[in-house]
């Protein structure tokens, strides 16, 4: 794949051998290849585009989405507070469109991310995204963690579920001592109910509010990405 960025910063993700057709004109695949990564290519309307190799953030931005896609700010916090690294054994529940799954898979590779989704239609969208972007280290399953967890020795369990507290009893034989549970919830009531059952865990709950700044004028942007959800991070102590 190649990533083209136009003069206004808009991104276009192209498969190998594909021409670009957009409001700024048309560019043939052979001209993109000739320009090479780091080069400039011009459309038939005289518009210039930068050519880059896409990375995981570009894949996430261009992935097919469901009705409630997780934001990058929350993905970064979840993976960071989960303490993930290459080779980490991580289980996720609530695959959705698979955006967080893709991000996790990029971090823990060559290990697999095990991800559960109860809805077949959501899992189908996620699998299409994994296939489109060549994300191979994902074990996508249909299942409900409320019924139990079959895996053992997990380094992290990540939840995007309506009732995350129902999963906690199943972590006894699945999450290793010192491992981390990270749960994403839109409501503080969900976070409180989860906290109530976290005996034997050291835990905290917080939210992230992101505000961009205009560095040239030293003023905050008028738009702000406010509350999206609460994160509860818990570390198993025994």
Can you give a write-up of this model?
The termini are far apart. The protein is of the alpha/beta class and 238 residues long. It has a seven-stranded mixed sheet with strand order 9-8-7-10-11-15-12, sandwiched between helices. A four-stranded antiparallel sheet has the order 2-1-6-5, sandwiched between helices. Strands 3-4 form a two-stranded antiparallel sheet. It is built from six helices and 15 strands. It has helices spanning 29-35, 56-62, 72-81, 99-108, 120-132, 188-196; strands at residues 2-5, 11-14, 20-22, 25-27, 40-42, 48-52, 90-93, 113-117, 138-142, 154-159, 175-185, 201-207, 210-214, 219-225, 230-236.
Notable traits:
Rossmann fold; single chain; seven-stranded mixed beta sheet; alpha/beta; 2 domains; Vcp-like ATPase, Chain A, domain 2; 6 helices; four-stranded antiparallel beta sheet; 238 residues
User: Span from first to last CA?
Assistant: 46 Å
Q: Which overall shape is indicated by the principal axes computed on the Cα atoms?
A: globular
Poorly predicted regions are none
CATH H-level superfamily of the largest domain: Vaccinia Virus protein VP39
Q: Taking strands numbered 1, 2, ... along the chain, how are they ordered across the largest sheet?
A: 9-8-7-10-11-15-12
As a percent range, the share of helical residues equals 10-25%
Number of domains: 2
